[in-house]
Amino acid sequence: MAGSHACKLAERPLSARTSESALMVAAEKYGHICEGRGRNRGREEDANAECRFRTNSPGYFYKPGDAAIGGVVSLIRAVITEPLFREPPERRCGTFNIVFKNYQHALSFMFAIRDINEDSKLLPNVTLGFHLYDNQFDSMITYKDILDVLFTQQSTLPNYQCNMKKQVLSVLGGLTVEDSIQMSTILSIYQVPQLAYSAYQIRMSGKANLPSFYQMAPKEITLHTGIVQLLLHFQWTWIGLIVSDDNNGESFVKMLTPKLAQSDICVAFLERSLAMNHRYLLDDRGTYSKIYFLLRTTDANVIVVSGDAHSLETLAMVLNANEFHIKAQIGKVWIIPPQWDFTNTFNQDSFSTQTLHGALSFSVHTYSVPTFRDFLQTLRPDKSLMQFFSVFWQTAFYCRLPNENYQYCTYCEICRGDEKLGRLPTSRFEMDMTGESYNIYNAVYAVAHTLHAIQLSRQRRTLDRDKFVNLNVHPWQFHSILKSVHFNNGVGHEVLFENGELSSGYDIINWVTFPNQSVLKSQVGEISSNQEFFIHADKIVWNSKFKKILPSSRCVKPCQLGHSKTVKEGKPVCCYDCSQCPGDMISDQMVFFAVVTVLVIQTFLKNWNTPVVKANNRNITCILLSSILLCYFSSLLFFGKPGKVSCLLRQTAFSIIFSVAISSVLAKTIIVILAFLATEPGNKMRKWLGQKVANSIVLSCSLIQVCICLAWLLTTPPFPDVDMLSQVGNIILKCNEGSLSMFYSVLGYMGFLAIVSFTVAFLARKLPDTFNEAKFITFSMLVFCSV
Question: Where are the domains of the chain?
Fold first, then answer.
């Protein structure tokens, strides 16, 4: 953004400084003719001057066509200082700021219409035109532009019209939420579709009153989920919030704060950034100083920002202040909203590479449009183009265009004509489509495909199916199709609307700044429309403060093993003390039995077909090992805060799994005895040595335990409970077993199975050494019964 100085008439906006004689010359040059209908000659001349001014103003660009699309962008911001009464009152000296990167919005609008007109399959025999306005970040000018685009055949003076044939089908625009509401308030009355291209959200209650409003940005909940997932991924639980001081910022806080609390993420501070009043250049120094102090003193390393370039100007002033860079020298991880390109708000002469270096931002999911770069490279200071871009072109390249009403500087060299946008630093102008420009590109295609669908439906009703029928189309006919339009844009990327909202996600962008004012933006992650999150942490370049260390943002360090969190009175839950746990409440020792069991299972599987494994009843052995492994994992149900599901599964899951293990041991023992008896000549036990007997033993013994557990859960199931009597001053969260008799029935059945297995194994203890497995079973069951 660059500043320029100009003196102008107090009664006219910035674009009206052109003299009437110059406007007359410009009108003849651009070929627009005005028709007067009044009887008074002086009144007719005023109307002609007004009409010529509107069609040739630097704030308006018109291209004729069979049907037209309106566009409202924000490019130049006027700053009028307070009058000092040192000069005649009819003139005021003021300044204006040029937001260079926003000119890409206008260019992507023109580029999309050019591509559609060159496409022989989309809208054949129909030429799209446009009416492009610069609202100069001013609400009054926004209203004027919308009235002008709606009543295109009338002058702002009564009874006069310009001879420009237009039929506006929809309007694109609304850089800020305030702009969108202003536009939609009028457009909804006339049922003209408005497609907002910036990434903000209007509350559902507001959308109900704006039936013609369509959002080109993804759903707001997708952004909130992405922010929380990003914080959780890097374990950032202590953050600062800076939001715009308006309804949108307040809504952001109300929507995001509960999600943060649910994820145990605390807000170190919440501050609101004010927008400057550019009509009188008012600035709240108190807010400026407060943000400055917070950023210098906070121990939160992560700052989440919400707002647009206009509403975050106080924050931008703090970050752009020389004393902030010199004294603070702080490094933070900035999480930036989609609608704030911070390089647009910085003074190019004092642009810092330290403060926001390594920032992360959410940008509307964008695909590459290679032909757009070619389009930008071929732009030249053409007369018709410079009607709208002369201010931008002269200021960006520090040159002056001949025969132009606005000149950046008197002593600059004349523009040579070989200036190229690609030579500008990326902090001033980007050659790749930004998220907002991509939204505009898709919005134009959405209108074109909607018109194409309407024409196709009418074509089917006629006899001539080879070409479109030239029938009148009204804006209100677009709504039924536009709410769910589904198409591929000019580069083949799919675009889908669902109930008037774009079905898309956000890209996570890493900003890397360089001393030469260039900026590199690389995609490092994504949050999809169905809220699937992923990020490549190894690709992120962090602020130089962190060097090669992963940034950490916590109020305190995590508690070590054997310690618990103790809440500090009057402090957020993230700022806790660590106190040592009682000896009977936690263990800091590792358990490796599950690993040993897995290794044994792997050994059996590796030697599955060997004689030793086959002789050891390999199927029952695998069931036994698997059930033992699950028994170890079932202990995880006893960790953490008791819940409804965990209380139901704690005892029942363990008892069923362990019953399977004991049943497997019993089956193996019985098979060993039967195998020994079957070796005697003439013994009839040989027919019981099949696998079906072992499976039947395991299944029947386990089903009995399942039935007991089901009876327990259906009658008096366990539930979460609290114990306030066992320890003075502490409340213990636990699971109430519901029925002690059912609990002991479950334990008793496991003991019964163990006793039976022990008895059978004890009787087989004197078998020959070849069958010494029974001895180990006897020992293990004896230990189990002792436990």
Answer: 2-218+368-482, 220-364+504-539, 594-786
DSSP assignment letter at 372: H
Question: Is 200 strand, coil or helix?
Answer: coil
The residue ranking higher by pLDDT, 382 or 555, is 555
Between 394 and 304, the more confident residue is 304
Q: Please state, in angstroms and rounded to a whole number, the distance separating the CA atoms of residues 388 and 136.
A: 13
Please name which of 330, 183, 178 lies closest in space to residue 244, comparing C-alpha atoms. Answer: 178
**DSSP calls for 125-164:** T--EEEEEEE-TT-HHHHHHHHHHHHTTTS-SSTTEEES-
> What is the per-residue pLDDT for 52?
40
At residue 135, φ and ψ (nearest 5 deg) are -85, 0
Coil, strand or helix: which one is 33? coil
DSSP 205-257: HHHHT-TTEEE-SPPHHHHHHHHHHHHHHTT--EEEEEEESSHHHHHHHHHHH
Q: Residue 5: which H helix or E strand, with range?
A: strand 2-9
Same fold, 2-218+368-482 and 220-364+504-539: yes
CB burial string 186-218: b at 16+ within 10 A, e below: bbbeeebbbbbbbbbbbeeeebeebebbbbbbb
Residue with tokens 């134009």: 444
CB atoms within 10 A of CB 601: 16
Residue 193 has phi, psi (to 5 degrees) of: -65, 135
pTM of the full structure? 0.70
| Separation of alpha carbons 150 and 186, rounded Å | 9
Q: What is the CA radius of gyration of the chain?
A: 38
CA distance 721 to 429: 62
Residue 281 backbone class (left: φ over 0; alpha: ψ -120 to 50; beta: rest)? left
First vs last C-alpha separation in the chain? 77
- Please answer whether residues 339 and 199 qualify as being in contact, where contact means their C-beta atoms are separated by less than 8 angstroms: yes
pLDDT confidence band for 89 (50 / 70 / 90): low
Phi, psi of 49 (to 5 degrees): -65, -40
Q: Across the chain, how many H-helices and E-strands are there?
A: 22, 26
Place of tokens 């603070």: 328
Calpha distance 630→90 (Å, rounded): 88
> In angstroms, what CA-CA distances link 31 with 27, 38, 270, 676?
6, 22, 55, 112
Question: Tell me, what DSSP letter sits at residue 539?
Answer: G
Class for the domain spanning 2-218+368-482: alpha beta
- What is the C-alpha separation between 300 and 11, in angstroms, rounded? 49
The 3-class secondary structure across 455-484, one letter per residue, is HHHHHCCCCCCCCCCCCCCCHHHHHHHHCC
Looking at the predicted structure, is the pLDDT value of residue 521 above 70?
Answer: yes
In Å, how far from its chain's centre is CA 135? 28
What span, in angstroms and rounded, lies between the C-alpha atoms of 188 and 667? 78
60-63 β-sheet, strand order:
60-63, 128-134, 67-73, 168-173, 194-196, 213-215, 501-502, 494-498, 486-488
The more confident residue out of 40 and 270 is 270
CB 240 within 8 A of CB 273: no
CATH ID of 220-364+504-539, from 3.40.50.360, 1.10.3720.10, 3.60.110.10, 3.40.50.2300 = 3.40.50.2300
Contacts of 599 (CB under 8 A, 6+ apart): none
How far from the centroid of its chain's Cα atoms is residue 77's Cα? Answer: 29
**DSSP letter string over 507-524?**
EEEEEEE-TTS-EEEEEE
Q: Are 697 and 663 in contact (CB under 8 A)?
A: yes
* pLDDT over threshold 60, residue 296: yes
If one counts every other C-beta atom within 10 angstroms of the C-beta of residue 477, the result is 17
Least confident of 17-26, 449-458, 570-579, 702-711: 17-26
Residues 86, 68: Cα–Cα separation, whole Å: 47
